[in-house]
Amino acid sequence: MPKRKKVIFIQLPQLDNDLQADHENVPLAAATLQYAAEQAGEGAHYEFCRLPESEQDAGNQSLLDTLTRLAPDVLAGTLYLWNIERTLRLARLLHHRLPEIRIVLGGPEVAHAHPFLFKNTAADALVVGEGEIVFPALLRAFRTEKSVPYSTVALRTRNGYRWGNEPTPAVCLSHHLPPPGYGACRPDARGMAYLETSRGCPMRCTYCRYPHLRQSMSFLEPDDILSRVRALRRLGAKEIRFVDPSFNAHPHFGKIVQRLAHLNQSGALAFFAEINAERLTAEQADNLARAHFVDVEVGLQSRDPAVLKAIRRPTSLGKLESGIRLLTRRRIKVTLDVMYGLPLQDTGDVRRSVNWALKLPSTNVQCLQTLLLPGTELRDRRREWRMRALTHPPYSVTETDTMNPADFLAIEHLIARHPKLRSDIRTGAFTGTRLMLFKNQIKVTASDRGSEPVITSNRCAFLFPGSDLFACRKELERYIRTAMRREPDGLFQFVLCLDHEEPLDLLDGLIEVIRSQPRHLIDRYAPVALTGKIASRRVMIQLPRKNKFSKAWISEAENLLAEAFF
């Protein structure tokens, strides 16, 4: 029997500077695609595996070395706005090392009119939308050297990508959804599990991908949903998050939550979901509380009817408020989303919407900048409202015909000042005896500064000890520049471990080196970008415990770094 070919699934994680939170990167797509391939008989020809857990936090070079060693025949990657640039970089480098590899990329970022994806030829196949039918067909095509005709698949040719012309068969959710104990569908080490009960969304919001990816909806039967919840509980689940875009769009929603309330009378499980509060009844809210739904997410977006009409989100504001209060009165926490930068929206509407939301009890308000995501109606119609946005992730809207850049900055100042809105991760202190540093720390001695940085993690703190760092500032600048160029996606802290006061001109040179490099993804998000500061790479000063530094020097150093870094 011929040796099976190897498929590796990869889903690069979202990067940020938060040292406290657990970073979720649940590979549900990988589990679903593997299950579909095995159901289609491709398991006889391919073995499937995920990138090892130990490599999830690795730097690009380390990831590249690992993948080269594993030598997969097929690499299947999931693209999100937070990982598309990094994944494409890695795929391009991997093709040079493994010329025969086939690379398949899918996920929310794949859209026909993407601003840069199709200019990059790293992928052998790009897939729009659901992959349960397409992925097994691609694997079969790779081993038989045949083509895939589906209109949701773009295959690389010598003249660029070519789309198929046949309609892709519909996915049957009950048939294609993996069982609860399958791969990433199992509860994780913390007891968190994820459950999909429907595909599609009843709304047609212009800023969202769902209307473009699926025109109709399909649902699991209530008995199937309850059976899956029981199975997840037996497997150790403590929390279950329903990943549907609108959980109560299910035609049997009332029956489902009633049965969940009966199943979870002990409260051993905690549930999370996103719902449309307008449609909620008092009886449904009672059952949500009895079932132990501890947090639900509700989209408000705006309280201006003209704005809501422009984004195709018809809303009865009275029913929405009534639904939210049904939840909060039952002590269910509500996460309420407000957007800014929408068509026809001005700062007055943003402030009114935020102030209204903040007055509601038991709510966590998120004020989010509008994104012109590839493949959305809003992006296609952006010229109607003279919307300007970043051409690369996160595709943030920076100006509209009703809001100028100063208005966007004012909204971000509002968010930063309000304790219930502020959600960004700022550096607590840049100078001090105790600093919040990344776990992965690399000591760079005088003899190391002339060598190539060895970077194994995507978040590193470089510690530079020395008695006269100002004298060797050019070496430091060169080392820092090399580290950033070697790992363009890494988050770095460059920590000067001083034993005496040094000229602050040292900091000016290091800041200039960091500013000279291309902006990292997290520097493009509004809280950072609108301030002109940098969050991805920061200079910090570690003082000795028994320090003789003057308060004036410490204050001046802190202010200088705080002006440059976020």
What tags apply to this protein structure?
alpha/beta; 566 residues; Rossmann fold; pyruvate-formate lyase- activating enzyme; seven-stranded mixed beta sheet; 18 helices; six-stranded parallel beta sheet
Helix % is 25-40%
Distance between the termini: 58 Å
Question: How much beta, percentage-wise?
Answer: 15-25%
**What overall geometry do the principal axes of the alpha carbons give?**
globular
CATH architecture of the largest domain: Alpha-Beta Horseshoe
Number of domains: 3
Question: How is this structure best described in words?
Answer:
It is a single chain. The N and C termini lie far apart (58 Å). The strands form 5 sheets. The protein has a 7-stranded mixed β-sheet with strand order 2-1-3-4-5-6-7, sandwiched between helices. A 6-stranded parallel β-sheet has the order 8-11-12-13-14-15. Strands 18-22-21-20-19 form a 5-stranded parallel β-sheet. The longest helix is centred in the first third of the chain and has 14 residues, at 84-97. The model has no long low-confidence stretch (mean pLDDT 94). The chain has 3 domains: 5-163, 3-Layer(aba) Sandwich (Rossmann fold), CATH 3.40.50; 173-417, Alpha-Beta Horseshoe (pyruvate-formate lyase- activating enzyme); 431-564, no CATH class. The chain is built from 18 helices and 22 strands. It has 566 residues and is an alpha/beta fold. Helix 1 (28-39) crosses helix 4 and helix 8 (253-263) packs parallel to helix 9.
